[in-house]
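Hey, sorry to bother you again with one of my protein questions. A protein chain has come my way and I'm curious about its shape. It would help a lot if you went through both lines with me. I owe you a coffee for this, so here goes:
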Amino acid sequence: MKSSLRYSHRLLSGFVATLIAAGGLVAGTAASAQAAPPPPSGHRDHGPAVVPDPFVERIGGADRYAVSAAVSAHSFEPGVPVAYVASGEVFSDALSASAAAGAEGGVVLLTQPDAIPTPVATELRRLKPQRIVVLGGTATIAPEVETALRAFSGRVDRIGGADRFAVSAKVSASVFGSHRPVAYVASGTAYPDALSASAAAGRLGGPVLLVRPDAIPVLVADELRRLAPAKIVVLGGLSSVADSVISELRTMGTTTRIDGADRYAVSAAVSAGAFPPGVPTVYVASGTAFADALSGGAAAIANAGPMLLVTTDSIPTAVGVELDRLRPRRIVVLGGTASVSDATLEKLRAYLR
């Protein structure tokens, strides 16, 4: 998938997704996922490529499930290799999925625990994924949902485990070979640091693994030893991952910590460590809610850009500095105005090149 070849289609899909958010279409209407299908697989524009003016767009929706479907429709063509399906009610299982999906050229979609929201079902029908991977145990996503997903793909697998840490390790093991260039490690009890890591991990070719604040779960330690990464990058400060965990990680490889005054500073530092200036696209999501960024991670990987976190009504200083360094041609805001206000969206225009 060539990002530069699909600007015109994304302009249209982003415009329609914004109309969905503004018009208040409820989740459950087919239009929310079908509004702007991308071109058929293999489509190529003829003649000279037209580079659009820099722009900021919003992908919104009636709820997190409609946003999830719209984000997918905005970036992925039918026939994707894999669609990861995770609970939209809890963050833990999907945190590791975005990097895995990005490595496979796939998408992450959110579902309710006991039913597939209609916009998501419509998007799965459009995508026709070669494989669907359900994340988490049956308490997270019911067996009935797994059965219903079989209508959209000839192969449906589930990656479960005793807890979120086991799922994290199993997701990594299912996708990544050994001797990876990097493995990102983040707290499994809080979401902000790992949200920013997905796009960076996807760019650099490594997984995101979850740990407890004061210990490395056995399955995660085993997976890190198997991966034998060239470096391990720990995200967040001492309250997220203790120094004792860092010490243990150093027995498994070269280990560094990316810290900051808050989640926004960490978000900016993660981006600065993985992305050069002049990236084509930057994704921006709320740092106080997880749902929109969970779906956006795989899309950011597909479009070769970072995920940065903002508050509803402002761009934190560290994030503004990073945007000024990146100077993208396009910024994609995830979620409605309750997540990222129109005033914040307008301020983002100052960072376009």
Notes: Residues 3-39+64-351 form one domain. The first helix runs from residue 7 to 23. The radius of gyration is 19 Å.
